[in-house]
Design goal:
Layout lengths: L2 E6 L2 E6 L10 E9 L5 H12 L4 E9 L10 E3 L7 H17 L5 E5 L7 E6 L3 H8 L9 H21 L5 E6 L2 H10 L5 E3 L13 H10 L7 E5 L3 H4 L1 H15 L4 E5 L4 H10 L6 E5 L4 H7 L2 E4 L8 H8 L4 E3 L5 H5 L5 E3 L4 H12 L2 H15 L4 H18 L7 H5 L1
Helix pairs in contact: 1-15, 2-4, 6-10, 8-13, 11-14
């Protein structure tokens, strides 16, 4: 009999995957491109499965499913698609996931975004492509290489077309938005569908202040106690790495402070290393690549910086906050809720002078860093994976209750 461990703030418990009689559990199909602990929305799905399988039979329709989660689900319908290019992956998944769903008998269908043409009950909103394009003023970053601009433009065009098809009354029963900000956004762009707020969570056992990791990583990198800022994430143009590099150059030249920057995550390293050298900060910036020990990198840093053009929640900022770091960020969905009135960090404009000023203030004032970091850590404690999963499960219960009298199974209606 398979077992799993559920971890939330201050709680670890082991339970059988089959605690409740299987015949009494509602059946949910969870449709997602990928499910594992290595990403944002991928991790959210994994944390949901770890908790929901005690009450619901969660059948998976996905391209990948982490091996440790397979014992917690009755079935995984693997959708065979290439990892890249994304436009091809999206298009093939759209077709093949619909074919998988056609034969399933389930009570609810939960899709992670607009990724299947089939009618669904719940769509989780981790990114709204139409909302992003409105804010960005275009489909792709102008400074990106031409092949990347073409790929990104095609991907977002497909995503917006998918949203327009899926997010309509009669095809979707409810949005599950990860922040109130993106909830308001999808309500405005796709009216007529109820919005429920289901925030993400943070693993506070993993993401926490860690003095030992701080000493070890700094020593291995040849650092003493000079201030260290950290940027974590992919999609470096959207998340603001170019403007961070410009701001770092300004802050260092204006203060003479030996402020350093770590960049964690996958991206076009050559292009951004070249930009760092052009700005005169090539020696001050370390590109660490994608890492499995992000929590240790965060614990080694002093300041977290994310001047993102668009976020729906900003999970990595909450993880940085849980590690006790003050957060420098733009006022986008989710991050406004974390930083609030400024007690947990500094809200900035997405331009070098504003970010440089925030970096300068925090680099020169250890007491301010500690005060903001302590507040950030306390605020992050409101967000747990148990509460996140419970919000989604409560939405499941509500939808099932609404259609209980009379109601057939969703799979029988769609078949």
């Amino acid at each position: 009999m398979a077992t799993s461990v559920v971890a939330s703030a201050g709680e670890v418990r082991s339970r059988s995957c089959l605690d409740a009689p299987r015949e009494t559990r509602p059946r949910v199909a969870l449709v997602a491109h990928d499910i594992h602990d290595g990403g944002g929305m991928e991790r959210v799905c994994g944390e949901l499965i770890r908790r929901a399988h005690y009450e619901f039979d969660v059948t998976i329709v996905a391209a990948t499913l982490a091996s440790e989660l397979r014992g917690c689900v009755p079935a995984w319908h693997r959708v065979s698609v290439p990892r890249r290019p994304f436009p091809l992956k999206y298009s093939l998944f759209w077709i093949r996931a619909a074919n998988c769903l056609r034969g399933l008998e389930v009570d609810l269908i939960h899709a992670v975004g607009a990724i299947t043409p089939r009618p669904v009950d719940v769509a989780s909103i981790h990114f709204c492509s139409a909302g992003f394009v409105q804010i960005a003023g275009g489909l792709a970053p102008e400074r990106a290489p031409l092949p990347r601009r073409i790929n990104t433009s095609l991907a977002r065009t497909l995503a917006i077309a998918g949203e327009r098809w899926c997010y309509r009354p009669g095809r979707l029963a409810a949005f599950a938005a990860v922040s109130s900000g993106v909830g308001e956004e999808v309500s405005r762009l796709y009216p007529g569908i109820p919005v429920h707020i289901t925030p993400n969570g943070v693993d506070h056992d993993r993401f926490r202040p860690d003095p030992a990791a701080r000493r070890q990583l700094r020593a291995a990198s040849g650092l003493g106690e000079e201030p260290l800022a950290i940027f974590v994430g992919g999609d470096w143009d959207r998340k603001g790495l170019p403007v961070v590099l410009e701001a770092l150059a300004r802050a260092r030249s204006e203060t003479g402070c030996d402020l350093r920057l770590w960049v964690v995550g996958a991206g076009d390293r050559r292009r951004f290393q070249r930009l760092a050298r052009q700005l005169g900060v090539g020696e001050a910036v370390s590109f660490l690549g994608a890492r499995g020990d992000v929590e240790r990198c965060l614990a080694a840093a002093d300041i977290f910086v994310l001047p993102s053009l668009y976020e729906t929640f900003g999970l990595v900022a909450f993880e940085a906050a849980a590690c006790g770091l003050p957060v420098i960020a733009t006022p986008v969905h989710g991050l406004c809720e974390l930083i609030g009135d400024g007690g947990a960090g500094i809200l900035v404009e997405r331009e070098p002078a504003s970010i440089a000023d925030a970096l300068r203030r925090l680099a020169l004032d250890p007491a301010l860093r500690r005060a903001l970091g302590e507040t950030a850590r306390r605020r992050s404690e409101r967000y747990t994976w148990q509460a996140s999963a419970e919000a989604v499960m409560e939405l499941y219960r509500s939808l099932l209750s609404e259609r209980a009298q009379p109601a057939g199974r969703r799979g029988e209606v769609l078949a």
